[in-house]
Design brief:
The complex is a heterodimer of chains A (457) and B (574).
Chain A (H helix, E strand, L loop, with lengths): L1 H17 L7 E9 L5 E10 L2 E6 L9 E4 L3 E5 L1 E6 L28 H7 L3 E6 L7 E9 L7 H4 L6 E6 L2 H11 L6 H29 L13 H10 L3 E7 L2 H13 L5 E5 L7 H7 L2 E4 L17 H7 L4 E3 L10 H10 L5 H6 L3 H7 L16 E5 L8 E7 L2 E5 L36 H9 L3
Parallel strand pairs in A: 1-4, 1-5, 6-7, 9-10, 10-11, 11-12, 12-13
Antiparallel strand pairs in A: 1-2, 2-3, 5-14, 7-8, 8-9, 14-15, 15-16
Chain B lengths: L1 H11 L25 E12 L2 E11 L2 E6 L9 E4 L4 E4 L1 E6 L23 H4 L16 H7 L3 E6 L8 E7 L5 H4 E10 L12 H27 L11 H10 L5 E4 L3 H14 L3 E6 L6 H7 L2 E5 L15 H10 L2 H34 L4 E4 L8 H10 L4 H8 L1 H6 L17 E4 L10 E6 L2 E4 L19 E9 L2 E12 L2 E8 L2 E13 L2 E10 L2 E12 L2 E7 L5 E8 L4
């Protein structure tokens, strides 16, 4: 199995290695640099070489051939990171079974989704392209960099980012599988069972292969290899600590349940998503080292999301939980800086704390904090430049840079930013919504439940 | 709930029906056996291969083989002489991916959702790589005649199915039985990134995962089988699995994987799989390959570009079907119009830009030095000659186009010793047209498949249809419309009562049958209106159609929501 696996990885690496990622050289002059991790620096320049920050300081000189961006009077911050999104994907939910650990959104990455450009227009440079929440154990997710303009899905993928996987608790998996197909899970108990069973089977799977691999090289060995199972391979990698769990969750009881399950199986890499009742179990989350990615002020779209507060992010933060604010939406992803600012009204977080919610903290949750999430020498040059402070209501994103390449420039924003155009498609009205993301997101079934429960329409 | 309705509403208007092509060629009903299997085609311009031409020469065909080609060929007395005076003869065209002659399985609509959609049977999941297209061939299928009539004599055909439909074969477009048509079998392991309906794998991520899992399982089971074959004593017997066994020739690189991949994302996903496993790859029906040429080169994939193209922009025929739109525009508020119209113009312009890229794809591949053939899978046969002309206008030379129809596919499919050029000893697969094939006015007159002559009856184009001959409107019509949200279909019933038309329209998005109003028939033009309920609003929808025999083409205008193309055909028997 190891052989197969290393082969698979070698191939995966080969593919990434051949992806032609564009990396730029530039000098951003005279801005107010919000480093996030090392304070704010007035009238400071940021020098970028080969896509990485090579120097931060005053009166830097750009070598010949470097692009210069004048940031006088502007704020320069690390590119915003969204730890929960479904943009740039052509498929989100493989909703046919309660455990689909074998599938991977990396196979559905769509560099042509104009939502990527719109996210850039809000200073967002990296997002977590997640599987949906239909299954207790959903598919593996892909961390993407918003290198909009490429036609190559491999270029969009953040090379070398840790593997992540989507889990989901509560109403979505029980509705899809229990209500929908009459199979487990029909209740929160069933969801726990699906997860525990998967972990237990994967443990057996690991043991079976280890036994086989150890025996097969012995002289005179006669034996049959275990059946290869991609689903169990993936769960095995979670148990081995190679994959970070990102779990869709709302209620405190179910959050606490997964903490216990992970503890039982020795799983440490755990991020809760949505986690609206996280404020109730904040000390427990902090103690475990589990992280939380929340909405600023979005709830009541279904029954399990009623007990919520806009103070959630602040309470989690003050309890020492690494917290981020995410979008889960191709619309919210365009103004995550506003979403972060809400924690100053509700919870009084400092500028640093509020900005960390959309930069270094989501980077930690995705395991990429050594590369992005703050402005430091040696880090990748993913940079958002704002007119006005990004936490101000009057903030306007002006220029967004990924790997030292300008991917959004307000001055050069054309009407039609699509990369590919379907020559057979009907030219539709601008008011048409893009439904490709809607039908899969975490609000699925909310309206139906409202009707069922309250007769609301 | 309003949004939900809005989405349904969007789906209602849209189109792209596969209208049945109307064939002007006569059918060979039970032809008598020819008195001789020797033919002489005389006084003909022989394009032996791209760049090799003999003016006014003779080809001698005997028992399915080309016996002589040249200026001075002596004609034996038993030869049937075809006086192809100043016509043009080419090697029969070769199609790289098609389902010509393959029996289409009946659509199983509203299939019961299985109890456990995560564990469907292989058949239900579209995983049938052990299937063989030879079991599904029908030598009497009309599609054979249609494709032959535009010059094709050979095709690489594959079964219908899901992600792994089965083994392909190379067939001749004519023959007395299924076996008689087959030139080579098990020529490819055919695959598509097609998901299963409502069961696993229901999405492309499921298909990719399943593909990887099956390949690795096959690899393991193949290794275990050889281990077992070497020494069976003391080993548990390997269980046979037809699905996994079908992968073995792929793993051994004895059989290529033939992947249908139209769009750029599909192409790249397939190349990712190829990168993971290193199998030999044929990419077919490629429509958007121009930006991934380097990846294709790196994978050493054999290429078959699609013969389907986006519809050519219609030359503005004033007074044609655009008239309906124009009237509408005039009704609109002039101030509001300009901004919207400007935006629409810009969007249309980009569509045209991309249409041009599709058309120029063969020329781009040619410049990049990638050998390619063509595939007809998603093309309508009657559009192929004009699409080829458009490709030539976009930069491909006629010789290059001919190479992609003959010598290159012969080479890519390993058939060069038998076909692709007009040379002594090759199979008598020939196409004869009255003018150069790529000439707009050219018509195919004769086709030889394996020495069997097919004579095409060339009728003058029907006159009148376009200029207002009274179309037969009454009856039941099936329509389809297209929006960015998807495809919607329905029925239109039309009744003529003493010269006054009335009827109704249905949609698969709604269970209501709606009455249609203001039915007007003018020559072959049909128009009507109906009301569509959207939430609390009632929208007036106007339909303008042009009828051509048993099919129609036109648009559905929904006020400020725009105009959507609509196509359809008459249901038979009514």
């Amino acid at each position: 199995m190891k052989k197969i696996f290393s082969l698979f990885f070698a191939c995966a690496l080969l593919t990434t290695a051949t992806a032609q990622v564009q990396r730029g050289n530039m000098l951003i002059k005279n801005g107010t640099v919000l480093t996030i991790t090392k304070g704010n620096l007035e009238n400071t320049d940021v020098l970028v070489k080969d896509g990485k920050i090579s120097q931060i300081g005053k009166n830097l000189v750009a070598p010949a051939g470097y692009q210069t961006v004048d940031a006088t009077g502007m704020h320069v911050m690390p590119g915003i990171i969204d730890a929960h999104s479904h943009i740039a994907l052509t498929a989100i939910n493989e909703a046919t079974q309660p455990n689909t650990a074998q599938v991977w959104t990396g196979d559905a990455v769509d560099p042509f989704d104009v939502s990527i450009y719109r996210a850039l227009a809000g200073g967002c440079t990296t997002s977590h392209a997640m599987h949906g929440s239909a299954n207790a154990i959903g598919g593996q997710c892909e961390t993407i960099k918003h290198r909009y303009g490429t036609t190559d899905p491999e270029v969009l993928k953040m090379e070398g980012a840790p593997r992540t996987i989507k889990f989901a608790l509560g109403e979505n998996p029980t509705r899809v599988h229990g209500e929908g197909n009459g199979i487990v899970p029909r209740s929160r108990m069933g969801v726990e069972f699906v997860i525990r069973e998967a972990f237990s089977e994967a443990k057996e799977y690991i043991a079976a292969w280890d036994t086989y691999n150890a025996a097969k090289n012995q002289k005179g060995f006669r034996g049959t290899p275990p059946a290869y199972d991609l689903k169990k391979e993936t769960i095995a990698d979670i148990l081995k600590g190679n994959i970070i769990i990102h779990c869709h969750s709302y209620r405190a009881d179910e959050i606490y349940m997964l903490l216990r399950v992970c503890k039982d199986f020795g799983i440490k890499k755990l991020v809760f998503q949505h986690v609206n009742e996280g404020f109730k179990v904040a000390p427990e989350l902090a103690e475990y080292g589990a992280m939380a990615s929340v909405f600023a002020d979005w709830w009541a779209y279904k029954f399990e999301v009623y007990y919520s507060t806009a103070y959630n992010a602040a309470i989690l933060t003050k309890n020492g939980v690494t917290t981020s604010i995410n979008s889960d939406s191709e619309e919210l992803i365009r103004h995550l800086y506003h979403e972060a600012a809400k924690t100053q009204k509700y919870g009084g977080l400092s500028d640093e704390e509020a900005l960390a919610l959309i930069t270094i903290n989501p980077a930690k949750q995705l395991g990429i904090e050594a590369r992005v999430g703050s402005l430091e020498v040696g880090k990748e040059a993913d940079i958002a430049i704002f007119k006005g402070h990004p936490l101000s209501s009057y903030a306007v994103p002006m220029v967004t840079v990924v790997d030292g390449v300008v991917r959004f420039d307000r001055e050069k924003d054309a009407d039609d930013q699509r990369i590919y155009v379907d020559p057979k498609a009907v030219v539709d009205n601008a008011t048409f919504h893009n439904y490709s993301h809607n039908h899969d997101n975490c609000l699925e079934g909310a309206e139906l439940n409202m009707v069922k429960l309250f007769g609301l329409n | 709930m309003k949004q939900f309705n809005f989405s349904c509403f969007g789906r209602l208007f849209l189109s792209l029906a596969l209208t049945l092509p109307v064939w002007v060629f006569a059918q060979d009903d039970q032809p008598l056996a020819p008195v001789s299997r020797t033919y002489a085609i005389t006084n003909v311009n022989i394009i032996q291969a791209p760049g090799r031409k003999i003016d006014m020469g003779t080809i001698l065909v005997k028992d399915g083989i080309i016996k002589a080609v040249g200026k001075t060929v002596s004609i034996p007395p038993e030869a049937i002489v075809i006086k192809a005076d100043s016509m043009y003869v080419y090697a029969g065209f070769i199609d790289g991916l098609s389902r010509v002659g393959v029996i289409k399985p009946k659509e199983e609509t509203n299939r019961e959702r299985p109890k456990d959609p995560g564990n469907p049977t292989n058949e239900r999941a579209g995983i049938t790589p052990q299937n063989d297209v030879r079991n599904e061939l029908n030598p009497a299928d009309k599609s054979l005649e249609e494709l032959r009539s535009v010059g094709f004599t050979t095709a690489h055909v594959v079964p219908y199915g899901g992600m792994l439909p089965g083994n392909g074969s190379i067939i001749l477009l004519g023959g007395s039985s299924a076996d008689n048509m087959v030139l080579a079998s098990k020529t490819a392991f055919y695959s598509e990134l097609t998901s299963a309906q409502r069961v696993y794998p229901a999405t492309v991520i499921g298909v990719m995962a399943k593909w990887r899992e099956l390949y690795r399982q096959a690899n393991l089971s193949k290794n275990y089988e050889s281990l077992y074959a070497a020494n069976r004593s003391g080993l548990e017997r390997p269980t046979t699995d037809r699905v996994l066994e079908a992968f073995y020739p792929v793993i051994d690189k004895r059989q290529p994987v033939l992947f249908k991949s139209e769009k750029i994302l599909d192409i790249q996903r397939v190349l990712t799989l190829q990168g993971d496993f290193g199998f030999s790859l044929m990419l077919a029906d490629v429509k958007e390959g121009w930006d991934v040429i380097n990846k294709i080169k790196a994978a050493n994939a054999k290429m078959f570009l699609s013969l389907d193209l986006p519809e050519a922009k219609k030359e503005v025929k004033e007074g044609d079907k655009k008239e309906g739109d124009k009237k509408d525009e005039k009704k609109d508020d002039k101030k509001a119009k300009s901004a919207v119209e400007l935006e629409k113009e810009a969007l249309e312009k980009r569509k045209e830009e991309f249409s041009a890229k599709y058309t120029a794809q063969p020329a781009v591949f040619q410049k990049a030095g990638i050998a390619f053939g063509f595939s007809s899978l998603s093309a309508k046969p009657k559009d192929i000659p004009s699409n080829l002309r458009r490709m030539i206008a976009a930069g491909l030379t006629e010789d290059q186009a001919l190479a992609a129809l003959t010598t290159t596919p012969a080479q890519l499919l390993g058939l060069s010793d038998r076909m692709g050029s007009i040379d002594n000893g090759k199979m008598a697969n020939l196409v004869i047209s009255d003018k150069s094939y790529f000439n707009e006015k050219s018509k195919v007159r004769y086709v030889f498949v394996d020495g069997q002559l097919y004579t095409l009856d060339v009728k003058e184009e029907k006159k009148g249809d376009k200029n207002g001959a009274k179309a037969s409107v009454q009856g039941n019509w099936s329509y389809s419309t297209e929006t960015p949200q998807g495809t919607n279909t329905g029925k239109i019933k039309l009744k003529n009562t003493d010269g006054t038309y009335s009827g109704s329209i249905t949609s698969n998005m709604s269970d209501r049958e709606t009455e249609i109003k203001n039915v007007a028939v003018d020559g072959n033009k049909l128009s009507f209106t109906f009301d569509f309920q959207m939430g609390s609003n009632t929208m007036a929808i106007e339909v303008n159609l042009t009828i051509d025999g048993t099919s129609f083409d036109g648009s559905m205008n929904v006020g400020s929501y725009g105009s959507f193309p609509m196509k359809g055909s008459k249901d038979p028997g009514l």
